[in-house]
From TrEMBL:
<dbReference type="GO" id="GO:0050577">
    <property type="term" value="F:GDP-L-fucose synthase activity"/>
</dbReference>
<feature type="domain" description="NAD-dependent epimerase/dehydratase">
    <location>
        <begin position="7"/>
        <end position="235"/>
    </location>
</feature>
<keyword id="KW-0413">Isomerase</keyword>
<protein>
    <recommendedName>
        <fullName>GDP-L-fucose synthase</fullName>
        <ecNumber>1.1.1.271</ecNumber>
    </recommendedName>
</protein>
<dbReference type="Pfam" id="PF01370">
    <property type="entry name" value="Epimerase"/>
</dbReference>
<keyword id="KW-0560">Oxidoreductase</keyword>
<keyword id="KW-0521">NADP</keyword>
<dbReference type="GO" id="GO:0016853">
    <property type="term" value="F:isomerase activity"/>
</dbReference>
<dbReference type="InterPro" id="IPR036291">
    <property type="entry name" value="NAD(P)-bd_dom_sf"/>
</dbReference>
<comment type="pathway">
    <text>Nucleotide-sugar biosynthesis; GDP-L-fucose biosynthesis via de novo pathway; GDP-L-fucose from GDP-alpha-D-mannose: step 2/2.</text>
</comment>
<comment type="similarity">
    <text>Belongs to the NAD(P)-dependent epimerase/dehydratase family. Fucose synthase subfamily.</text>
</comment>
<dbReference type="InterPro" id="IPR001509">
    <property type="entry name" value="Epimerase_deHydtase"/>
</dbReference>
<comment type="function">
    <text>Catalyzes the two-step NADP-dependent conversion of GDP-4-dehydro-6-deoxy-D-mannose to GDP-fucose, involving an epimerase and a reductase reaction.</text>
</comment>
<dbReference type="InterPro" id="IPR028614">
    <property type="entry name" value="GDP_fucose/colitose_synth"/>
</dbReference>
């Protein structure tokens, strides 16, 4: 292939990276050469190792997914690590992309980095409007700096470095580790273990009342490809399901119970943290570009993820 894009995906072995790989493989385009990286290829916290990796592949485009990522409880106990590792990785990837003349970088923020005290729905203009929720301030400030850096690279060097802001993501290849996972993979793992042991009480942490927008990783992957190919602004864009698709942790847990056909009861451990009550994000900007984009119905996406986990337990990140 000559003259086409060489797309380097950092964090290519993770939840979002694997979903992008699945969609790319299903398309069979010949004008794009995709390279999916994991931490085994290089520790992106290390400038020299990162530079070597870029010199090996000479990307024209970068999707920067690599990050220290985790659920509420992992963030609460590791704010410093989340901040430092992500600041280092982001600084190296953006600076080396600039040094190597990469044409476009798409990095990843998250709706959980938005201000804690805010008006709803939250939109792209509100990212820096006040402190994030204290539970994940390390991750949040590191991620917010990507937007600041994108603007600085644009102002000083005219780079097209942009970012997307996904809501809570789930799907095949997620991190199902009970200590560090987000809520959906954590509860899938938990419920699967309970069923295997013949238990009949499914304990969900917190009150079950917080509200979340959840996006299926394969839907997010399709949106990522659109951003890479067709969204040419430095300004961030929220990639989220509609506001009407927001569900409570309780409703989401009931959907898991259905997908597993679990006959026991759900109990809420109210001694555990709820985190931010809601982060309702507006996808109005996305809808202006893609008014007809169809998200996979939540029950279908949950069922596919549960089925994937049951089939792939031995290779899943547990
Ligand atoms: P993930 O499944 O935990 O994957 C993380 C990826 O980053 C893995 O490929 C991992 O490589 C790589 N990585 C971690 N540390 C690295 C290092 N020091 N050097 C090189 N690579 C490193 O995460 P994800 O859920 O796919 O998240 C992808 C992006 O989406 C992240 O930027 C995250 O902040 C953002 N995001 C995620 C969510 C969510 O709900 N999951 C929501 C909003 C935004 P190994 O596999 O080798 O460890
Ligand atoms: P967030 O969306 O960024 O807050 O992160 P999570 O995906 O970790 O979701 C946290 C929400 O799910 C909080 O309201 C938690 O109380 C609730 N939750 C219930 N059970 C669990 C669990 O087993 N793991 C996690 N991570 N969260 C849980």
């Amino acid at each position: 292939m000559s003259g086409g894009k060489v797309v380097l995906v950092t964090g290519g072995s993770g939840l979002v990276g694997k979903a992008i790989e699945t969609v790319v493989l299903s398309e069979k385009r010949t004008d794009e050469n995709w390279i999916f990286l994991s931490s085994k290829d290089a520790d992106l916290c290390d400038y020299n190792a990162t530079k070597k990796l870029f010199e090996k592949h000479h990307p024209t485009h970068v999707i920067h997914l690599a990050a220290m990522v985790g659920g509420l409880f992992h963030n609460m106990s590791h704010n410093l690590d989340f901040m430092r590792k992500n600041l280092h990785m982001n600084d190296n990837v953006l600076q080396i992309s600039y040094e190597m003349g990469v044409k476009k970088v798409v990095s990843c923020l998250s709706t959980c980095i938005f201000p804690d005290k805010t008006e709803y729905p939250i939109d792209e203009t509100m990212i820096h409007n006040g402190p994030p929720h204290p539970s994940n301030f390390g991750y949040s400030y590191a991620k917010r700096m990507i937007d600041v850096m994108n603007k600085a690279y644009h102002e000083q060097h005219n780079c097209l470095f942009t970012s997307v802001v996904p809501c809570n993501v789930f799907g095949p290849h997620d991190n199902f580790n009970l200590e560090s996972s987000h809520v959906i993979p954590g509860l899938i793992r938990k419920l699967n273990d309970i069923i295997q042991k013949g238990g009949n009480t499914f304990t969900v942490m917190g009150t079950g009342k917080p509200l979340r927008q959840f996006i299926y990783s394969l839907d997010l992957a399709r949106l990522f490809l659109w951003v890479l190919r067709d969204y040419d602004s430095v300004e961030p864009i929220i990639l989220s399901v509609d506001e009407s698709a927001e569900v409570s942790i309780k409703e989401m847990s009931q959907e898991l119970v259905k997908a597993f056909d679990f006959k026991g009861e759900i109990v809420f451990d109210t001694t555990k943290a709820d985190g931010q009550f809601k982060k309702t994000a507006s996808n109005e900007k996305l809808r202006k570009f893609l008014p007809d984009f169809k998200f996979t119905p939540f029950p279908t996406a949950i069922k596919e993820t549960v089925d994937w986990y049951r089939k792939n337990q031995s290779i899943a990140r547990n």
